[in-house]
UniProtKB/TrEMBL annotation:
Coiled coil: none annotated. InterPro entries: Flavodoxin_fold, Flavoprotein-like_sf, FMN-dep_NADH:Q_OxRdtase_AzoR1, NADH:quinone_OxRdtase_FMN_depd. It comes from Pseudomonas indica. This is FMN dependent NADH:quinone oxidoreductase. It catalyses: N,N-dimethyl-1,4-phenylenediamine + anthranilate + 2 NAD(+) = 2-(4-dimethylaminophenyl)diazenylbenzoate + 2 NADH + 2 H(+); 2 a quinone + NADH + H(+) = 2 a 1,4-benzosemiquinone + NAD(+). FMN binds at residues 10, 16-18, 96-99. Homodimer. Pfam families: Flavodoxin_2 (PF02525). It comes from the Bacteria. Belongs to the azoreductase type 1 family. Keywords: Flavoprotein, FMN, NAD, Oxidoreductase. Its EC number is 1.6.5.-, 1.7.1.17.
Amino acid sequence: MSRVLVIESSARQQGSVSRQLTEQFIARWKQAHPSDDVMVRDLAAQPVPHLDADLLGGWMKPADQQSEAEQAALARSNLLTEELLAADVLVLAAPMYNFGIPSTLKSWLDHVLRAGVTFKYTETGPQGLLSGKRAFVLTARGGIYAGGNLDQQEPYLRQALGFVGIHDVTFIHAEGLNMGAEFMEKGLAQAQAQLAQVA
């Protein structure tokens, strides 16, 4: 049995293409892997605060010197990190906002990319500690960006995931969603076909 951690980051609960893709992915995954445990964390319903002084204090100060706010921030980071550590498969649903990922997803990454926990520094540079995990990234984009220099999502997420040792990453892009009915239909169909193959 594998554990699948799904991270939703769309600000919309209704009409979200990335959420539609996530639902389809989960349904197909459960059909193919009925014994797997799937957990969904919705960053719109339960936002993760931006990295701040309380979180830094929680990470860096001895326990007996932490304020209540720092202890709470550390506990939140520990919870999110433990969910990631326990997962065998990570699914990130990431609509494109202003050429990048939603700020909620960036905040989640800021809580789980932790020195000594998900990566470590060595004499030869940083080393990821999460090797052996797989990741799928489901994106929804109004235009067509894959492979172009305006696509800041895929390179950033590949770097962030690779930094913690997750190198087996599959991207599924639903593109052209705001370019008219024909482009939207084609973009969704391509994403759904790819999703069916990998899930």
